Every structure is written in structure tokens, then in C-alpha cells.
Sequence to fold (151 residues):
Amino acid sequence: MTATLMAGCLVLAAGCGAERPAEQAASERPDTPVSSSPVADAVTTPPPAKPKPVKPTGDAVNPRKVRFTKATPVAKGRQVRLTWWSGVAPCTVLDRVKVKETKKRVTITLYEGPSPKAKNVSCIMIAIEKTTTVKLKAPIGKRKIVDGAKS
Fold:
């Protein structure tokens, strides 16, 4: 059995060191694609989706604070558009948005949780980008926007 194993290894080793025929080596270039089919060359990345607009439902079960990724003043600074990553409804819904305004800052806190409608639903684990817009009592001006979920 050892002789058979040694003979097999010798054949493999000899085959690995063999040179390719000259015409085959010359026809292959390192920058040549493996496949030249139009399907393989097409871009497979989908275009970025726009954030899904949502409104607070006020009925989430055990809501928790959620960080937003972007806060943009809109409507001449009288509103703030928030963007964040979340799960799909009804498994994850925006419960409420808390806004606290002072002379120097506007603290905004998002609260999310599962909807009561998600009680007997299978929830897929996929992230989607969501957006909501909140109204301010006074224009943002030079005040700083603070994420209340970070504290």
C-alpha cells in the first residue's frame, strides 16, 4: 500500500511541474477575463434604494431607542429629516419621536419596537433604510442636532 501511495504522489508531483505547450501559454494573458459573456461582464450591484418614509405608530411593544445616521434640516430649518437603518414592518416599526429643544441644541430620539400585529408573523432579518421628518417649535438656526439614543 505504501508503494502505491508513493507512486501516486510521484505522478502528481511530475504532473505539477510539467510545462504547458508554448501555443497555450502564449494565448493566455493574466488580464484576460475568464468569461467573456455579457452576463458575466454586467454590473450586478443594484442601484441604491431611497429610504422608506415612515410615520410613528405609537403602538410598538417595548420600544427602544434607535440611533439615526443622518439628520438634515429641511423646510427652511423648521423641520428635520432623519434617516436610520431598521428592520421591516410589522416586526420593527417607529413608535415615536421625542424632540427636546433648547437655545443651543435640539435633541431628537427615535423609539422603535415590534408592532402588536407581528405577534404571529415570521420576521425576516433584513435591514432597510427608513426616514421620517419632525417639526420643530423654532427654526434650527445655529443650534446643534443631537441624537438622543447616543446618551
Remarks:
- The two ends are 70 Å apart (CA to CA).
